[in-house]
Amino acid sequence: MAIDPNTPKNIILIGFMGSGKSSIGRELKQVLGYPVIDTDALIVKRAGKPIRRIFEEDGEEAFRDLESEVLRELEAIKPTRRIIATGGGVVVRPENREILRQLGFVVWLVVSVEEIIKRTGKNRDRPLLNNDDQQSTISRLLDERIEPYRQTAHQELESDGLTFPEISTGIIESARYFFANL
Prior knowledge:
- By secondary structure, this protein is an alpha/beta fold.
- It has a single domain, classed as Rossmann fold, CATH 3.40.50.300.
- It is built from 8 helices and 5 strands.
- The chain has helices spanning about 20-30, 40-45, 50-60, 60-75, 95-105, 115-120, 135-150, 165-180; strands at about 10-15, 35-40, 85, 105-110, 155-160.
C-alpha cells in the first residue's frame, strides 16, 4: 500500500485492549507535547454513557458505528501533530483501517495473551471480557484481529516487558524515520 506524502504527522496507536494505548499516549504527550485524542473517550462523550453501557443497551454494532463515525470526523478535520489512541477493535472494519493509515503513522502495540490477562483481568468495564473464560475470549479475538492489525500498522512493536519510556522512545524514532521518508 503506497504512503501518501500528505499524510498528517500524527502517531496512531492500535492494539488489543490492555496493550497500553492510553498509557503510551500519555507518555508520548509528555515527550512530544502533542495533544492526545482518545477515540473511546470521544465515543463516550457522544453517546453520553460509558462503553460498557453502549454494549449492554445498544450492542457492539452500535458501538462500532460510533467508532467509525468518530474516525470519519477525524479524517475530515485532518488533525496534525496529535497522538491518537484507539479502541482495541477499531481495525475490525476495513474502512477504519484505511482511515487510520491516512491519519498518520500507525503503531500496533503487540501484547501477549498472558500480559493482557494480567492487565485487564479484574477490570469489569471491558464488555467483551465479562465472561468466565477470559483467556479463550482474548485468544479468539486476537486470532480474529491479528491480520487486520497487521494490515493497518506501519510498525509492529512487541511491548511485553518494556517500560512506557522505552516503548515511547522506539515509537518516536520510528515515526521520525517514517515522516522523513514520505
